[in-house]
Amino acid sequence: MNWEYIASIVNSTLRMTTPILLAALGSAICSKVGVFNIALEAQMLIATFFSIVVNYFTRNVYLSVLAGIFSGALIGYIVAVLQVKYRAADMVIGTSMNLLVSGATSFLLYLIFGLRGKLVDSSLVSLPKINLPLIRDIPFLGRMLENLTIIDYLAYVIAILMFIYLYKTVSGFRTLSVGINKEASESLGTKALRIQMSVVTLSGALCGLGGVVLSMGQVTMFTENMTSGRGFIAMAAASLGVSHPLLTIVSSLFFGLCQSIGSALQNVIKSQLTMTLPYIATILALMLSGWRSLKSKNGRSI
Amino acid sequence: MLLEMKHITKEYGTLRANDDVDLSLREGEILAVVGENGAGKSTLMKILYGLEKPTEGDIYINGELQKFRSPHDAMAKKIGMVQQHFMLLQPCTVAENIVYGHEPKKSGIFFDRKRAAAITKELCEKYGLSIDPSLIVSNCPVGLQQRVEILKVLYQDASIIIFDEPSAVLTPQEVGELLKTIKKLASMGKSIIIITHKLSEVMEVADRVMVMRQGKRIKEMAKSETSIEELSFLMVGRHIVERKIPPQETTGTVLDVQDLVLSGSDKKNILDHFSIHVDAGEIVGIAGVSGNGQSELIECITGLTQITSGDILICGKTIVGKTVGERRTAGCACIPEDRYLWGCAKQATLTETSIMAHQREPAISRYGILNTKGIQKFTSGLLERYDVRSGGLSQKTGELSGGNLQKMIVAREIELNSNLLIAAEPTRGVDIGAMEFIHSRLLDKRAKGDAVLLISSELTEIMTLSDRIYVIYDGKVAGEFRKQDATEESLGILMMGGESNEPKAV
Amino acid sequence: MSQKLSNRRITSGLHSAWNTMRQPLIATILGLLVGAVVILACGKNPLSVYAEMFDKSFLKSYYLFSTLTRATPIILCAMATAIAWRAGYINIGVEGQMIIGAFAATVSALFIPGSPILIAIISFIIGMVAGALYALLPAVLTWKFRVSMVICTLMLDYVASYITSYFVTYPLKDVSGDGLALQTAQLDPGMWLPRLTPKNTLHFGFIIAILVVVFMVFITKKTVFGYESKMSGFNPSFARYGGTKQVKVMMITMALSGAIASLAGTVEIFGLKYRYADSMFTSTSYAWTGLMAALIANLNPVGMFFVSIFLAGLQIGGSAIQRSLGIPLEISTIIQCCITLFVSVKLVFNFIKKRKAKSTAAEKGGEKA
Amino acid sequence: GSAKPADTGSESAAPAASSEALPGVGMKIALVCDKVGTQVFLLQMVNGLKEAAAKYGFEYTVAECADSAAFEDNMRALVAENYNLIIGGGWQAGDAINKVATEFPDACDYALIDSEVEAENVKCVSYREQEGAYLIGMLAALTTDGESHVYGAVHVNEGPGSWKWRYGYMEGVLSQDPEATFVFNYVGSYSDPAKAKELAIQQYEQGCVFINSAAAGGDSGTFEAAKEKGFYTSGQDVDLTDPANPYIVTSQIKDTYATMTNLLDLYFSGWNTDDEVWGVKEGTIGAVYVTHDSQNPISDRLTEADIAIAKQAADDIRTGKLDLTNMPTEEEYFASKG
Ligand SMILES: Nc1ncnc2c1ncn2[C@@H]1O[C@H](COP(=O)(O)OP(=O)(O)OP(=O)(O)O)[C@@H](O)[C@H]1O
Ligand SMILES: Nc1ncnc2c1ncn2[C@@H]1O[C@H](COP(=O)(O)OP(=O)(O)OP(=O)(O)O)[C@@H](O)[C@H]1O
Ligand SMILES: [Mg+2]
Ligand SMILES: [Mg+2]
Fold first, then answer.
1. Is the CB of B479 under 6 A from ligand 1?
2. Are residues B116 and B198 in the same domain?
3. Whole-angstrom Cα distance, residue D244 to residue D223?
4. Which CATH class is domain C24-343?
5. Dist CA D49 CA C60 (whole Å)
6. Of A108, B166, C110, D100, which one's alpha carbon is 20 to 30 angstroms from that of D332?
7. Ligand 1 center from residue A290 Cα (angstroms)
8. DSSP secondary structure code for residue B493 in this structure
9. Contact assignment for C159 to A276 by CB distance below 8 Å
10. Which residue from C178, C319, C326 is facing D70, i.e. has the nearest CB?
11. Beta carbons within 8 Å of D95's beta carbon, 6+ residues apart
């Protein structure tokens, strides 16, 4: 196995990680305010669609990115209204939103373009790739970091900013307090409902950005259901990262890696079996972290 | 008048929790509101604090009509409330909790935690309340948590402070300090409303007393014009007579705790070579400042926690390693100290809550199949005999007033007819009528020749009911007294970790 | 006398049924309204589309039977979900348990020699045991390692689907025909569950589903176990304090959940498909539809039964309008989702409740004055 | 009871006036298949059906199936709705049509495209895709010209379905480049272009200069990777060569349009229900530039000579000189290779 190949696996891991990381951050921040959001898939998919639609009509990258973020946020807002404000069951909302958006995007694709299945067009503009001038020339590193978009970097910045916001700022503190004890935070005038709703909307925007990087960064097209379960993987990643922004970076990278390694293993093991890898790895990782925290507590049994 | 509430009426469906109540408060005054369980005290305060909207009636501050839509509005008018169930962010620090809502900032957005700690220190000094700002709240004992609540209200610069049953969960020492604090705050110009079931506290701090019954204001008077006897008569509509407890012979040991050790997460033992016994026909009290291992002792005996070493016997048979259910059949009933955590499920109906631990009795179920009729009969019997005021068998447990819920739990455990009854804080939050009632039930149990282990932070309760008293300190038995030998001082010194009842050498 | 009494009982029963059904009904109407807008947007007449949709899902007997056939696994999945959720264990692994259980049952039926009926019964049992074991796995992990039950069961769904996919692609693949389909061989016709109607596919599995509903009602309302697991779901500390063995409740509820989930898959195979085919349970999302039914009906067994039938009917009807009116499948998905979303939101109901409370309060006030 | 479809929606292509003469008037024919959206393969079938409906004057319906259980549901309903001919499109319809045809042998006629089932009364048309894949494999080697001996392929799922492609492709490559080795990867989803792209890039990094794509919705991902990285690739089902992407050097043809129209021609001329397997010879399987022409310019990497070699092979397949009909299973194949 040569170094070039390893570098390319890392490179591909980084690209595969970004949408998962962004959605996982969306999931994490929701659980920080006590909302279980499983409409991540819907929030991502709508963004892949609308970013490409706007891209098609305007050929403008910025507008497309914005369209993606806004459409994701819009779905987030609907989820917020139904789930937070009207307290509908999270599972029902999430499941039917995922289904609804998958149907709606296919339908709209047909309605707007008369197309079925996918929109691929050479006129679509992809996100500019950044090949950093100095790093590009370092052999291994340059190879690892080639062809990443600004959002691939931005995802990590967002994670760090989210960490700073939650743990260092006043309004972050209030946001966290809603998740810790909603009643208490409300008793001192925090508008808990509003915070929860904006956080869920924000998670929509984050997933939206994840969708954008999928449809305009990794590839430049829209195809039906192109998120292919990344929202659920993101949920697992957030859970593995105990909803902490920085740990979520680690767990998302882990999932990205599982996918690349899984593909590499396909030459040896049947693909059906390699595809279980990320899922089994998640369970093992959760077991490990559970076992460690139990061991450190060591105290009373059930 | 600083504050006036006029003609307040509050209806929950058909129930009138408040019925045309008036209340007024002057600056620097301490007003005590007393009344039986479910009289509507908490409801009135929730209205004042903007947590509930009155069905009718108005609130005036300095003669100005107010409309409170939320606690936020009330706070803006300098009304603060120390709620019964603490509104604290448990995993956060004391300082973070106190400054919550008006946090000090660095460069406009960042939370200045250092300043928060400094502010907390200043605040503590100003009001003479000490607490370490960097402690994590969940690690603080209840008394300290309440202090955090008070400091929170003070930091909000409240001039009217409401306390809803602040002493119910405190140790006598903590109560003493609380009352001192309240008086001090009043002397600094704060106006205070306090709800309590402990009339001695009323007599100690209040300037005026308002008595409520069945949602109505019955009477209001200056403290100097009334007495404990009169207040209790007004509250429950009858005289409470002090009871004589006849001495009684004990027969055989029921509970025998031998050399019990429960180790904690660090090196220290939570319970350290702890040995006590309770005989048939006696009430044994455990006195101690809460947090010295009482909760763990109960958990060890009832089987909620596995012990590290030692032995626990009920009627001569060891119960170590047995499950909670097996211990219950072996004859161990328990009135839990936290009624919402262990004692009930708020969403469950009254029937469901009342048959817990009875569910395998023949009247309730046979071969695992529930007997619906039997259950209804059982529950309505309980509610009737123990005077639990409720809206019917299918009411949700969480909607009962605290005192009534307590009565129901006491009823359920006593009806188990077990050899041993562990009664942890059996009268927490109940009115004096109910308290007297619960006490008689405990004494009945003793008279029947059963054993009662009474754990209470209420020293007077322990001293009146117990035949024997152990003092628990730091997980160890710090002393053992017969009823006649125990005095408040001798117990108190041991409870605080003193060596004996001799004054310490300086 | 007794006649009168039973009459009263019936009216009060109807009343409570109305009370529980009112919210879903109103929500359905709202959902249909939104759907109507979508139908209009694609240039069709909502009324005729809806007429066709309901005609071909509930009103005509042929389609009603199809709806019931499709509802069968959904009902069972709803029950499987509910029994665990009631006790506070958020099992979203019903799909995985269904796959593993049904697959195990199929494999046993294919490979154990013997009289078909006997083998069928044995296979059902083996399937249920396999489903139960697959559900116990996350239970044990939650117990021993404090793994999040939600994530763990979700992950095991994927694992189950890929692993069975491997088996039907390679070692156990059917070789009849050109062998392109990823499926096992067909079961011996002697093992097939009997049909209930001659021309339709409605099979004995539906009766099994009804029996499970009855079983659930009995468990939840009438047994100590049901009581204890409900209390564990409300407040585990309270249940433990009352002598309930938490671990036992967890293991039993999860095992029951897995067994019922397995039954959902097994009746589909023995009553309808007659073999295990790759992704037959993932593409149909029976488990997820069942989960929605369970939540919409607030875990009430009888409610879940009807909601499941309703959701199945929407799917059958959606298919029908695509077939005969050329309405894109996406639109029927959209309609289904809108209805589900509105049903799950308690908003309508609460709004009415509040209005009522206000008006009765006002009446009372009026009387006094 | 059975029900007639409401008039409003059924799509009848029959012109009202001259309809009397057409043999299909008054007949109803249905195609039951997956959701058409994702697959050109099905779109072509639908187009073929439309075309035939215009020609014969029958009424037609496309019953799309949202999930695997819907195939049987739809077919049973169509039988109840008195359809004359039900055509299953794709192997996903196989099991359902087999059961329905066995249960209602006289109610209706049945056909199945792209798979073969046991029921006697189902006219099955399936394909020898390996023949097309063989041609693609040859072109792959001819395009690469020994630049690399590692050949890649990105498919949807591993299994007997994709084995036909894999086998044909490998044999085709090996016929031109005996040193060839292969990397195969599977996306595991019909709709994940992003993953397909990453898989293709990784194959490229392993030295593949040609990567065969058969990843359904994922194809566009592979194509994009090809354009970015500069390796060569091929499409499937229809002519996917693209003047804007010169790296798509050919496309494997599986002409379901022709299949559908041929099948209905057979039907209206009174068919027998013997199963048929169509390949290069029948014109439904092939490769762009070899058996099927394209409007798009041919890649510089493929010379006249290259195409001639492939064309010769196609002829050999037609004449039976090169016989790919009897294909080993995956296990047999690798066992024989050692
Ligand atoms: N949200 C509510 N819904 C229905 N009834 C309520 C509600 N809140 C209070 N009540 C009822 O109103 C009455 C008054 O309750 P409240 O809590 O004010 O009593 P209290 O005087 O504080 O009693 P305690 O001494 O037990 O705390 C009780 O009968 C109680 O059951
Ligand atoms: N979910 C609820 N629904 C209806 N009423 C409620 C609910 N929660 C609390 N209440 C009512 O609110 C009233 C006030 O509660 P409060 O916090 O004063 O507790 P409490 O009744 O004094 O109990 P305790 O003394 O045990 O703490 C109670 O009487 C209770 O009946
Ligand atoms: Mg109260
Ligand atoms: Mg109270």
1. no
2. yes
3. 11
4. mainly alpha
5. 30
6. C110
7. 42
8. H
9. yes
10. C319
11. C181, C183, C273, C275, C277, D71, D72, D117
C178 in Cβ contact with D116 (< 8 Å): yes
- Does residue B210 share a domain with residue B281? no
The strand pairing partners of D235, in sequence order, are D251
How many domains are there within chain B?
A: 2
Contacts of C9 (CB under 8 A, 6+ apart): none
Do B184 and B330 lie in a common domain?
no
- From the number of C-beta atoms within 10 Å of its C-beta (0-12, 13-18, 19+), residue B104 rates as middle
Q: Same domain, yes or no, for B330 and B432?
A: yes
pLDDT 10s per residue in chain A (302 long)?
578 888 888 998 999 999 999 999 999 999 999 999 999 999 999 999 999 999 999 999 999 999 999 999 999 999 999 999 888 888 889 989 999 999 999 889 988 898 878 898 888 999 998 877 777 778 788 888 888 999 999 999 999 999 999 999 999 999 999 999 998 888 887 889 999 999 999 999 999 999 999 999 999 999 988 998 899 999 989 988 989 999 999 999 998 888 888 777 887 888 889 889 888 988 998 898 888 877 765 443 33
Name the residue of B10, B33, B42, B193 whose CB sits within 8 Å of the most ligand 2 atoms, as the mutation to test its pocket.
B42
From the list D178, D214, D179, D180, the residue with the least C-alpha distance to D199 is D214
- Structure-block tokens of residue B13: 């469906």
Q: How large is the ipTM?
A: 0.86
Q: Say if residue A236 is exposed, middle or buried (CB neighbours under 10 Å; 0-12, 13-18, 19+).
A: buried
Is any Cβ of chain A less than 8 angstroms from the Cβ of B83?
Answer: yes
Residue B253: closest CA among B302, B298, B160, B318: B318
Helix residue spans in B36-112 (DSSP H): 41-48, 71-76, 94-99
Strands D181-186 and D122-127 turn out to be unpaired
Task: State the Cα–Cα distance between residues C63 and C67, nearest whole angstrom.
Answer: 6
Q: Which of C163, C120, C125 is nearest to C274 (CA)?
A: C120
**Neighbours of A (≥3 Cβ pairs closer than 8 A)?**
B, C, D
Same domain, B267 and B294: yes
Residue listed under structure tokens 């207040």: B231
CA A20 to chain B, closest CA, distance in angstroms equals 29
CATH number at residue B62: 3.40.50.300
Which residue from A91, A100, A290 is facing C337, i.e. has the nearest CB? Answer: A100
Assigned domain for B189 exists: yes
What residue ranges do the domains of chain C occupy? 24-343
- C-alpha gyration radius of chain A: 20
Backbone φ/ψ region at D26: left (φ over 0), alpha (ψ -120 to 50), beta: left
What does D246-297 look like in DSSP terms, one character per residue? TTEEEEEEE-HHHHHHHHHHHHHT------EEE-TTTTSEEEBTTTB--SSP
Q: With beta carbons less than 8 A apart as the criterion, state whether C224 and B359 touch.
A: yes
Which of the 8 DSSP states describes residue C272? I
Residues B268 and B221 in one domain: no
Please count the CA atoms within 13 angstroms of the CA of C134 that sit on its side-chain side.
34
Is residue B457 in some structural domain?
yes
Chains D and B touch (3+ CB pairs under 8 A): no
User: C touches which chains (3+ CB pairs under 8 A)?
Assistant: A, B, D
- Token pair 């039997």: residue: B374
Q: Which structural domain, as residue segments, surrounds residue B430?
A: 253-344+405-495
CB atoms within 10 A of CB C164: 29
Looking at the fold, whether B430 and B484 belong to one and the same domain comes out as yes
Nearest to C243 by CA among A195, D122, B412: B412
CB contact under 8 A, D95 and C273: yes
Q: Which chain D residue has the Cα nearest residue C45?
A: D8
The encoded tokens of residue A252 equal 């998302």
**Same domain for B306 and B433?**
yes
**B445 located within any domain:** yes
Q: pTM, whole model, 2 decimals?
A: 0.88
